[in-house]
Design brief:
The protein has two domains: 2-76, no CATH class; 91-318, MetI-like (MetI-like fold), CATH 1.10.3720.10. Helices cover 76% and strands 0% of the residues. The protein has helices spanning 2-29, 36-40, 46-55, 62-76, 89-124, 129-143, 146-157, 180-214, 217-224, 229-265, 271-281, 284-312. Helix 5 (89-124) crosses helix 8 (180-214). The radius of gyration is 24 Å and the shape is globular.
């Protein structure tokens, strides 16, 4: 088990280096715009631009820039400074990270609990109205983009512009430590919007896996020997949960991608909103920092899922 964990961690470090290279190429080599212009103001002279490029070390060769970029990240955990505000990218991320953690963790709890639960109920009550309704709703939620679903919920339930005025609207985010009650109510709609698509995918996946397992010979044998249906279902769930666990790491990546849209729609001051604002300003240092943070989050989540999967099924340790 220890050797397997070490292999997965080393593979994660390699993937993070690849992400560093890709983001560096995208945001340092491909863009046509000059980041120095962001700090130069209006009508800058060529001398001012050259001086800013020198201070930002943009006048060095690309291999040198990449080496210093990776060295600063790995050795000093320094993501650089914003081209627009000259603030530390790491500090900007730290200020926005609590809101993103609140959004993604709450959404993850919702899509795991409701996705797996609805999938089990649909499989147990196959071809019932509950099964057809839940799978139809799952198909609808998978097809609904986050920004559209968020706008619909704001139109219906927002306290400022909604028809029913039940929940706080956009821009009403309150930190958990400031007011837990207002924090919870302000996050209900964003949680649902971000979790809806993933919960629908998990419900369909869990239903399909459980139906397949329940048709296996050993399940029929257990029923023939008189094992209670509740215990049979429990054994079937344990056997069908492994493929679902494998997808959890991938779904975290989708959560982070959806967080950019959800934070923008609901005006939540999170890392996704920071990435959106940085893209609009062409602030490459901040964009790179948010992308690397998302990549690190996804890689760590996948490593943890792989370790959990190896614990549930020891055969994968030798793969």
């Amino acid at each position: 088990m220890t050797a397997y964990v070490i292999r997965r961690v080393l593979w994660g470090i390699l993937m993070l280096l690849v992400v560093c290279l890709v983001t560096f190429v995208i945001f340092r080599v491909l863009p046509a715009g000059n980041p120095a212009l962001l700090r130069a103001g209006r009508n800058p002279t060529q001398g001012q631009i050259k001086a800013i490029e020198h201070s930002l070390r943009l006048d060095r060769s690309l291999p040198t820039q990449f080496y210093e970029y990776v060295k600063n990240i790995l050795l000093h955990f320094n993501f650089g400074y914003s081209y627009g505000s000259n603030e530390s990218v790491l500090q900007l991320i730290k200020e926005r990270l609590p809101a993103t953690i609140s959004l993604t963790v709450g959404a993850a709890v919702l899509w795991i609990v409701f996705g797996v639960g609805i999938g089990i109920l649909s499989a147990v009550r196959r071809h019932s109205y509950l099964d057809r309704g839940s799978m139809g709703g799952a198909l609808l939620l998978v097809s609904a983009p986050e920004f559209w679903l968020g706008l619909v919920l704001l139109f219906l339930f927002s306290s400022s512009i909604g028809k029913f005025k039940i929940l706080p609207g956009a821009g009403s985010y309150v930190g958990l430590t400031s007011d837990p009650g207002k924090w919870f109510t302000s996050m209900l709609m964003p949680w649902f919007v971000l979790a809806a698509g993933s919960a629908a995918v998990f419900a369909r996946l869990m239903r399909g896996n459980l139906l397949e397992v329940m048709d296996e010979d050993y399940i029929r044998t257990a029923r023939a020997k008189g094992l209670p249906e509740k215990e049979v279902t429990k054994q079937g769930v344990r056997a069908s949960i492994n493929p679902v666990v494998t997808v959890i790491g991938l779904e975290f990546g989708l959560l982070l991608g959806g967080a950019v849209l959800v934070e923008t729609v609901f005006n939540i001051p999170g890392v996704g909103r920071l990435a959106y604002e940085s893209i609009a300003r062409s602030d490459y240092e901040v964009i790179e920092g948010t992308v690397l943070l998302a990549a690190l989050f996804i890689i760590v989540a996948n490593i943890l899922v792989d370790i959990l999967y190896a614990y549930l099924d020891p055969r994968v340790r030798y793969a």
